[in-house]
Amino acid sequence: PSITPPALMAQSYDKYRRTWLESGHPADQLEIPALHFTYVGASGPRARREPEQCVMWYFQTFARLVAAQRPEEVSPEYRFYAKAREHLQSVDYGHLYEDVLLFGDIERVVDRIKFLRDELGVTYLLNWMNFGGLENELARDSLRRFAEKVIPRFR
Question: Which of 23, 25, 82, 135 has its CB 3.0 to 4.6 Å from that of 71, i.e. a possible disulfide?
Answer without folding.
Answer: 82
